[in-house]
Structure formats: C-alpha cells, structure tokens
Design a protein that fits this description.
6-stranded mixed beta sheet, elongated, alpha/beta
C-alpha cells in the first residue's frame, strides 16, 4: 500500500464463485461469507473494519475474528462510507479491490458519498501478497491437498454401476467435510461417447440422479 501510495483499501466480498477478486476479501478478512455481500475497510495506519450482513454472519465473524471492528448492517456500502467519512483517508487515495468485481451501484455510492477521495484499482496490491505463501499458509494448502486426496480415494471406492451421481457426491463431501473442508465446488463429468440418449457428458456439470453404468468414463 505504501509503494502504491494508498491510504486505505476497500475490498468487496460476496458468496459464490467470485474469482481471485473475491478471494482478496477472504484472504484479508479470514471470512467466507454465508450469503449476500460485505465490505472490508483496510487503512494503512488504522485498524481495519468489516461491514457484514446478517446476525449469524456477525456472530461467526466475532467468534473467530482477528479484526475487532465488525459492523452488522443491511447496507454495507452506505455504512462503510459513513464510517470512512470521519477518517483521514476520506480525503486521500483509496484502493479498491476490484472494480472488475465491484457492483456498479456500490462504486457509484463510494464516489458520491466520499467525494474528496481518489479511488484507484488495487486488486493486485492484495493479489501479489497472496502469491507469497507463509509457512502457515503452506501448511494449510498441504492439508487441503490431503483432504482432496481423501475425497478422490473415496470416489474410487464408491464408483460402481448402480450408484447415483448424488450418492457419489454425498460420499465425497462426507469424507472431505470430516477432514475439515469448509466448502467445495464438486462437479462431475460422466458418460460415454456413444450409445446413450444424452449427449456425451464429458464436461463437468452438477451431479444428478443418474446412475453410473458399466463402461462409463468418470
């Protein structure tokens, strides 16, 4: 932030598959959202603050927090702007991570409610830091790989003719959840090139009630 001349960062987070920009929120806040969206205010020389929706998300963030400033709100952008307006960064240079992943309505609110701030694209400020892994991060990554391996081993055990795709996924996620996985994106490609009414299902798709058959490529 000092190198880029930033007084603060505003980082947007949302549920779903959000790409690397959404990962910036998870990385800095140590918080995977259950639903809706949230904003993180990360100043250069003050304590950070999170603006998060829902009492259950607020309680979970408070229980496991490293950030003390947790604000429950139905309007994260409005309340963040009110908070920032009383900080010195309100008249400084604020990085946003990232305009590519930020809803236009929130970007407009930032500009209208913080008219003295200069906003700059700053996703790479966070992303560059994420690329350099600490020993702790490497340990977590290795554990994640171990959990993934366990899921694949269980897949080999349960994949038999007559088992449904839903049953496969249930077993995969049972094993991975027991290993500590807090979320997954488990999809499936299964089928055969010929002899099936369905088009070849070689692309990964959400699992269905379809039963695996002898000769399937999974």
């Amino acid at each position: 932030m000092e190198k880029e001349g930033l007084d603060a960062l505003i980082v947007y987070g949302i549920t779903g598959v959000g790409g690397r920009w959404n990962g910036n929120f998870v990385y800095l806040a140590d918080r995977c959202l259950f639903y809706a969206d949230a904003l993180l205010y990360f100043p250069l020389d003050e304590d950070p603050a999170i603006f998060i929706s829902g009492e259950n998300q607020y309680l979970e963030a408070a229980r496991t927090r490293w950030i003390d400033g947790i604000h429950m709100t139905r309007q994260p952008a409005t309340d963040l702007c009110a908070y920032v307006s009383s900080r010195k960064s309100a008249g400084g240079r604020i990085g946003v991570s990232s305009f590519a992943g930020l809803p236009a309505a929130i970007a407009e609110q930032l500009r209208l409610r913080l008219p003295n701030a200069e906003f700059a694209e700053a996703s790479e400020v966070v992303f560059a830091a994420r690329e350099i892994k600490s020993d702790e991060e490497l340990l977590v990554a290795r554990h994640g790989a171990t959990v993934g391996d366990a899921g694949m081993r269980r897949s080999l055990e349960v994949l038999r003719p007559g088992v449904t795709e839903f049953e496969w996924r249930a077993e995969l996620e049972r094993v991975m959840t027991a290993g500590g996985a807090d979320g997954g994106f488990n999809m499936l490609g299964a089928g055969r090139a010929e002899g099936e009414d369905d088009a070849f299902r070689g692309f990964v798709v959400p699992p269905t009630g379809r039963k695996f058959r002898k000769g399937d490529l999974v």
